[in-house]
C-alpha cells in the first residue's frame, strides 16, 4: 500500500492524508482546503463506504431537467439526496394493502392520533409549514421557486427516489412497465415475488403515471392540495364514474411503484405495523415520497418534512434517530456547520434527538481533512519566509526548512561482517585450494620429467639400434618379393625409354626440401643411374629454391656410378621455376618462356639437348621427385594434361604416397616409386645388388620393427597403467 | 684440411646438434635451426636475384627492344608495388599485384582441380567397372571388387564431409539424414585408414632420413676410428 512520509517528523501516513497524523503538520505544501470542501468531500468518502452509486444518485436527483425537482436540485445537499436514494433502495416493497378510496385521503391525513410521539413532535413543529394554508409562511425565495416550477413531465420518468425508467413510451401501460422493470431487477436481486397491482393500471393514462412520479420528487411545499385536486380531476376524467378504481396517490405509490423498484423481499408485517397509511398526516402525502418506502422503517416518513426544509430550513436536522445512529457525529456536525457559510443552511438541530455515536471503524477511516479542514491551509499560509530574496512573503514553499532537515548519509562499513563459522569455512576452503596448488605443481614436473626420460630412452634406443644395424649390416631383412604395381609400371616405363634406339629426353622436376633429401636422394639415385645408363638427356627444373643445389648433389651422386655418362652434355639444369601452380601452367603451355635460361644463364632451349623442343609433350617422360602432395597434385593438374601421352613418373617420399595413390589408380601418374619400400622394389626389379636402398634396407626394416615394438610396448604400458589406476 | 673434409665435419657437428633434440628443446638445437633458416633465406635471396630478377626482369629491360618494353614494364611496376606491402601505411599500393596474384592463382587452381583432379578421379573411380579386355574371370572379379571398394570409399568419404542437416517442419533439427549418417560412418573408416597410412608414411620418411644421417655419421667416423 502506498504511503506518504511526513517531511517534518518522518512518520508514515496514508496516501490520502493531507496532514500528518503524528505532528498534525501539512503533508503537502500546496494544500488549500476550501471552506465548503470538507462537507462535500466528507460525504464523498462516506458514500464510498456506504456503497453508493453515483450514477444512481444522479439519476435519482436529476429526474427531469425541466421539472421543478430538477430546478431545485442545486439547492438539495448531495448527502441528503443520496440518503434519500439509499432509503428508496433499501425500502422493501409494501405488502398488499387495502386500497383506500380517494375520499378517505383527507380523513387519513387528519388522523394523527395514532402517530408516534416523535412524529407528533415533528408534526407540531412543522405543521404550520405544511399544507396549503401555510404557503403564506414560506420564505420569499421558496415561493419564487414554487412559481418557477414546471409541472410538464419529461420523457424520462423517475420512479420513486431511487429508480429512473428511461424512455417509457406513452403507450406503454403501467403493467408492462412494472413487469419489465421487475424482471430486470429480479434477475440481479434474487427471488422476489412480484406484487400484482391492486387495480387495473392499464387503464391509467401515462400522464397520470408521470404525474405521480413527478410528485414524488417534488418538495413537500410544492405538492399541495392543488396538486391533489389536479390528481382527482385526472382520476375522475379517466376512470369510469362510480367505480372506486382511482386510488389515492400514496396508496398507488405504495403498491405499484415499490413493486417496480424494490428488489429486496418485503419486510414482515411487524415491521410495517408502526406505520400505517391511514394514520399518516396530510403533509406526509404531500411530500411525494413513495409510500412503499414507508414500510421499511416507520421513520422514513420524516423525509417529507426533510423535503419541506429543502428550501433552507435546516432539513438535515430532521434526520430521524435511527439515521442519526447510522451517521457519524462529525457528519452531523459538518452538516450543522454550513448554515453559517451559506444562507440555505439553518442549523436548527432539535435538542431532543439523541446524538448518534460514530463507529470506531468509521472514525478510523475518516479523512483528516473532514475533521480538521482548515489545519493544512492555516499552517501553510501562516508561515512567513524569513530569509532569502523571498523574505517576508507568506505561503512560500518551505524549501529551506526541508533542506536543512537533511543530514549526512550514514557511513557504512565496507568490511564484511563474517561470523566465526563462516571464517572457519573460508579458512578450510583456502586450505583446500592451497593443497590443490601444491599437489598440481609436483605432478606437472613429474610428467615433464617422465616425458623427457621417455623421449630420451626411445631416441637412444632408436639411434643405438640403427647404428648397430648400419655398422653390423646383419642382412636379416629380405627385399620385398611382392612389388607394388605402380613400381612395376615405373620400372617398365624406365626400361622402355632407356632401351629405345634414341636416347630419351626426360624432364626431371625436383620438388622436395633438403630435410627429406636423405630419403628421396637414396631412392632416386638408382633411378637416375638407370636413366644415365641409357644415355638419357636430363633437364632438371625445380619448384623449390633449394632444388638447384639438390640437383647438383643428385647428379653428382648418380654420375659417380656412371663414369661414361657425359653429364655436361646430357644434363641441363633449368634452375628454379617461381610461381608455384601458375608457373607449372606456364610451363605446360610454353616451357621455353617459363624457363628460358639455364642455371648458368645460358639459353636453355638452344642447347643440343633441348633444341627443337617447344612443349612439355616433346619430352619422352616427366620424372617428378617430390615430398609435397600439393605440388604433386599441381603437376598432375597443370602439366599432365599438356603432356599428352608423355608418361608422368613420380618418385615420392613415403609421406605423400597415400595422397598420390588415387592419381596412380586413375592412370594420371604412369608409375610411382615411394619411400624406401618403393626404392627397394625398384632395385628388386632392376636386380641391383649394391643399390643405396639395399644398403639401408636392414636398418629401415629394423627401425620399423623397433617403432612397432615401441608402440606396442607403449600401448601395453598405458593400458596397464590405466588398469592399475582404475581401482583408486 | 681439404674443403670436403671441412664441410663434412661441419655437417657432422650440425647433425649431432640436431640430434640433441632427443634431450629436449635446447640452445644447441635452436642455434642449428637459426643457422638453417638464415642459410636458406640467404641462399633463396641470392638464387632468386640471379635466377629470377636478373634474367627475367632487369636484363630484358636493359636489352629488349623498345617494342617489347611495355610488356616488361608492367611486371616491373607490379613488382615494385608489391614491395609497398612492407609498409603498413603504403600497403594499399601493394593490393593490385596481390589481387592479380590471387585471382590468377585461384583461376589456375580451380581450372586444374576441375580438369585434372575432379574429372580424373571420377574417371578413375569408374574405370574399374570396365571389365572388357580382362584376360580371365578372376581378374574381372578382382577388379570389380576393387572398384566397389574404391567407389564405396569415395562415396562414403564424401558423405562424411556432408554437413547438411535435416529440416523438419521448417526448423533445422541439426540431425543428418539416416542414409548420410550411415555413409559417413563408413566413410570414417576409410578416412581413418587413409590418415593412418599418411602417419605411417611420415614415420617411414623420418626413419629414412634418420638412417641416412646416421649412415653419414658412420661414414665420417669410420675413417677416423680406423
Written description of the protein model:
- The complex is a heterodimer of chains A (728) and B (226).
- Chain A is α/β, with parallel strands linked by helices and 728 residues long.
- Chain A has three domains: 37-373, no CATH class; 412-472; 485-708, 3-Layer(aba) Sandwich (Rossmann fold), CATH 3.40.50.
- In chain A, 50% of the residues lie in helices and 6% in strands.
- In chain A, the strands form three sheets. Chain A has a six-stranded parallel sheet with strand order 7-6-5-8-9-10, sandwiched between helices. Chain A has a two-stranded antiparallel ribbon with strand order 1-2.
- In chain A, strand 5, helix 25 (517-533) and strand 6 (537-542) form a beta-alpha-beta unit.
- In chain A, helix 25 runs parallel beside helix 32.
- Chain A is elongated.
- The relative contact order of chain A is 0.08.
- Chain B is mostly helical and 226 residues long.
- Chain B folds into two domains: 1-88, no CATH class; 132-226, no CATH class.
- Chain B contains six helices and two strands.
- Chain B has a two-stranded antiparallel ribbon.
- Chain B is extended and about 70 Å long.
- Chain B starts with a helix and ends with a helix.
- The interface between A and B is large, with 64 and 50 residues.
Q: What Rg of chain A do the Cα atoms give? A: 63 Å
Main sheet summary of chain B: 2 strands, antiparallel
Structural class of chain A: alpha/beta
Stretches of chain B where pLDDT is under 50 for at least 5 consecutive residues are: none
What's the helical proportion of residues of chain B?
over 70%
Coarse morphology of chain A = elongated
Through-space gap between termini of chain A: 62 Å
- Overall pLDDT of chain A: 69
Oligomer: heterodimer
Q: How many H/I helical runs of chain B?
A: 6
Helix coverage percent of chain A: 40-55%
The arrangement of helices and strands of chain B along the chain is HHHHHEEH
Beta-strand proportion of chain A: 5-15%
Spans of chain A of 5+ residues with little confidence (pLDDT < 50)? 33-42, 51-73, 127-133, 151-204, 211-224, 239-278, 287-301, 310-321
